[in-house]
Amino acid sequence: MQFSNALAFQNLIWLTRGVRGGLKLHELASLEELVMELSKTNQIPTCVVEALWEIFVSADSSSEDRSGSLLLLNMMAGADSSIIANNVASVVSIGLGPRAMKDPLLARTTSLCLQKLKSSRFSPSVLQTVFGKLTALILNTSDSDKAEESLAWFPVCEQVCAIRCSNTI
After folding, report:
1. In three state form, how does the secondary structure of 100-164 look?
2. Distance between CA 112 and CA 125 in Å, rounded?
3. Where are the domains of the chain?
4. Distance between CA 39 and CA 34 in Å, rounded?
5. 45: which DSSP letter?
6. In this structure, what are the phi and psi dihedrals at residue 158, rounded to the nearest 5 degrees?
7. What is this structure's pTM?
8. What is the predicted pLDDT for the residue at 169?
9. Over the stretch 56-99, which tens digit does the pLDDT of each residue have?
10. How far apart are CA 162 and CA 51, in angstroms?
11. Nearest to residue 169, comparing CAs of 136, 130, 134?
C-alpha cells in the first residue's frame, strides 16, 4: 500500500497528540518501538524526516505539532542518534528558547532528545549553554501563580536531573 509522505507525517504527529491528553505510558512505549523499528529498517522516507524538522523549526507550527514532530524525531533517534545530533543547535535554540517558556512539553521533549545523545557529542560550552537554558526555564516558571502551570514543569525538572546525572561538566 502506497500513501503520500505528507499524509504519513501528519498521521504520525496526530498519534503523538495523546501525550498532552493522557496517552498511557504503554501506548507511548509501543509507538516509540514502532517508530524506532520503522526507522531501523529504513521504512521512513528521508522526506518525512525532513518534513518533521521543517515543522519543528517553523514559526507557523502549533505547539502540539512542534512537540509532536520533535517527539517522533526523538523516537527515530533511538535507531540513529545522528537524526538529533546533526540538528542539535536547532533542538537547543528552539526547544529551550522562548517557545519553551509557554510549553513545558516542548522543553521536556527537548530534554529527552538531549539525554539520548552521548555527552561526548557536546563540548563543555554547549553543555553549559544547555544547563543554563534549562535552569532559566525552570526558575522563570517557578514563580507561576497557577499551580497547574507549576506542576507541568515537574517532568522537565526530572529530565534536567537525568541529563545532569548522565553528563559531567
Report:
1. HHHCHHHHHHHHHHHHHCCHHHCCHHHHHHHHHHHHHHHHHHCCCCCHHHHHCCHHHHHHHHHHH
2. 20
3. 1-86, 90-169
4. 9
5. -
6. -60, -45
7. 0.80
8. 43
9. 999 999 888 898 999 999 999 999 988 998 898 899 999 988 88
10. 29
11. 130
The H or E element that residue 88 is part of is: helix 88-95
pLDDT digits (tens, 9 = 90+) for 5-54: 667 667 777 777 765 556 677 778 888 899 999 999 998 888 889 989 99
As given in the structure block, the three cell numbers for residue 161 are 536531573
Closest by CA to 19, choosing from 67, 78, 87, 89, is 67
> Contact at 8 Å (CB) between 72 and 13?
yes
Q: How far is it, in rounded angstroms, from Cα 141 to Cα 144?
A: 6
Contact between 75 and 37 under an 8 Å Cβ cutoff? The reply is: no
Given a contact cutoff of 8 angstroms between Cβ atoms, the answer to whether 99 and 14 are in contact is no
